[in-house]
Give the backbone structure.
Amino acid sequence: MRRTLLFIPGNNAGNIQNAGLFGADGVIFDLEDAVSLTQKDSALNLVCNALNMLNYECEKIVRINLDNAKNEILALSKTKIDSILIPKAEDVKEISKLIKYAKSLKAKIKILLLIETALGLLNSKELAFLKGVSALCFGAEDYTSQMGATRSDDNKEIEYARNYLLNVCKAANIDAIDTPYTDTNNEAGLIKDTTYIKNLGFDGKMVISPRHIDVIHNCFNPSLAEIIWANNVLEAIKKAENKKSGVISLNGKMIDAPIVNRAKNIIRKSL
Amino acid sequence: MISVGTTESNDCLISVKKHKKLEIFFINEEENPYANHIKKLINDYCLDNNHSNVFIEINDKGALDFCILARLKTALERLEK
């Protein structure tokens, strides 16, 4: 489950020490944008030691630097890391080589790709199908910057990218993770944005503030009405199967395979 | 002197320079209840990794072992370059 993936600056000892306490489904230790060029070595050593010496009860992800990817993957492969987040994923051959390299060092490592450029989005339909990729994450700030778009409250400028990336992820049967909500003081805006992307079909959202975690989890958790509806659907299916009835309905509405799958998903998410 | 880390809470600042022997200087040692533990941690790391000619100064601000060892490793790596 990846409802929330919390970014933690890779050279901040206090934040790293407390990263597991906020209840996010995953933490992303950031060696890239959150670390200055002169402190990359220091951050890598700090994150590696944290992964080996501290206990985190969530998915442990590290965002690496594309220009030093092999060295960082080598160092991280010797730790208790779960996943690597590769930023600015664009070139299919380059990413494929990196994934193979990572898998050769640590077979069980999962790969998440950050799609944050126009070319990355264009190539995402190939990137998503690379063996070992378990999620595509959308980075709206870099994407809109490259597009020359202006960020707005209604997010119209990222609608195409969100929907395209989501479609690719569903086709490849991997997780689709949305861009962080960057206004840390606008809870109503966060709820609106999260509800919108949840209803589109996204599996989760990257997070830059621990305060956003519970809000996003509440948005992703099925409501009581949804759980009751899902239980009723599964009960109706069971009854129909017992009666060997071919046509199944609930409150006058026909129940078919997509409805059953939706009900099962709701029950799975509610557990 | 090469310095790595910060003086922010939960971190430490470790400074190193080449020296005739291994020597560890702990800033405000008498005020830190973990000073002996940290000095032993640093000493053991240096012995295990053959760093016997280095002067190490530590300014601890409540860092855990993972952080102290990471800052020390980085400082020694930079000193070697």
In short: Helices of chain B lie at 35-48, 65-80. Residues 65-80 of chain B form the longest helix (16 residues). Chain B touches chain A through 20 residues (CB under 8 Å). The mean pLDDT of chain B is 96.
